[in-house]
Amino acid sequence: MGRADMTVAQPASPHSAGARGGKASGLAALPQSQVSIVKVAIWLLAMLPFVRLLYLGSTSQFGANPLEFVTRSTGTWTLVMLCVTLAVTPLRRLTGWNWLVRMRRMLGLFAFFYGLQHFLLWIGVDRGFDLAYMLKDVAKRPFITVGFTAFVLMAPLALTSTSGMVRRLGGRRWQALHKAVYAIAVLAILHYWWHKAGKNDFGEVSIYAAVVFVLLGLRLWWRWRPAAR
Ligand code: HEM
């Protein structure tokens, strides 16, 4: 797998775009101006859940338990953004739309953006910035332990997402670090699964688990299938 495959927040480098080729199609060779339009459209779409929360908050529509409402919303959007980020490489391979890779850093950073809100709600509102209380929760509740680990792994990926950091770290080390995105996805599913296990409600989480399974499975398949050797 190349460097471009494995990041939560991948810089749009000229090395990654078009590096692997794929099926040619009209959309495969999108001009720069249209790539920019797609980028803006994705940015606007990805901001919608945040704007919705601001709107609901300012009009007192969070319901009986505002903390639960916002924590669940930001948690869900962190997972959605993670899945969309992980979908970039398979989609690019299947369609030949190499410009998709240039959306990945932004998508990964949105995953971190929602993850940070989710985390800050827990640490600030839920735990009142009380370090001892916070560590107790991490140690005591396995679903928090797993979510916390996922977030801790996400932070360095976001911090090293700039082209400057890629250069500073060097390709290999940067690549190795960004492999963590696979662990993050698995931990995120585990976190969600554990959260729902208490209520014996596995409907939605099973769908996310299937999506992550397919996205990671495709990578493994492309890497290990006999033809690749
Ligand atoms: C990659 C990181 C993470 C992802 C993708 C994620 C995702 C989710 C999802 C999908 C839910 C369930 C939403 C629902 O019930 O509809 C959730 C719930 C929750 N998460 Fe996370 N989470 C992450 C990290 C964290 C961290 C770091 C913490 C705190 C240490 C945390 C604390 C919680 C709590 C307390 C809930 C339960 C909210 C409630 O039902 O009251 N999560 N998370």
Which kinds of small molecule does this entry bind, naming each only once? protoporphyrin IX containing FE
Tally of DSSP helical segments = 9
Count of strand segments: 0
Percent helix: over 70%
Domain Ferric oxidoreductase: 74-189
InterPro entries: Fe3_Rdtase_TM_dom, MsrQ-like
Cofactor: heme b; FMN
Region (Disordered): 1-20
Fill in the keyword field for this structure.
mainly alpha
Describe what you observe in this structure.
By secondary structure, the protein is mostly helical. It has one domain (3-228). It contains nine helices and no strands. α3 (104-126) packs across α5 (142-159). The site of protoporphyrin IX containing FE has 23 residues, from α2, α3, α5 and α8.
What can be said about this structure in brief?
The chain is mainly alpha-helical and 229 residues long. It contains nine helices and no strands.
List the helices and strands and how they pair.
Layout: H1 32-58, H2 66-95, H3 104-126, H4 131-140, H5 142-159, H6 163-169, H7 171-178, H8 180-197, H9 203-224
Helix pairs in contact: 1-2, 1-3, 2-3, 2-8, 2-9, 3-5, 4-5, 5-8, 6-7, 8-9
The chain binds protoporphyrin IX containing FE.
The site of protoporphyrin IX containing FE has 23 residues, from helix 2, helix 3, helix 5 and helix 8.
Region (Disordered): 1-20
Protein name: Protein-methionine-sulfoxide reductase heme-binding subunit MsrQ
Cofactor: heme b; FMN
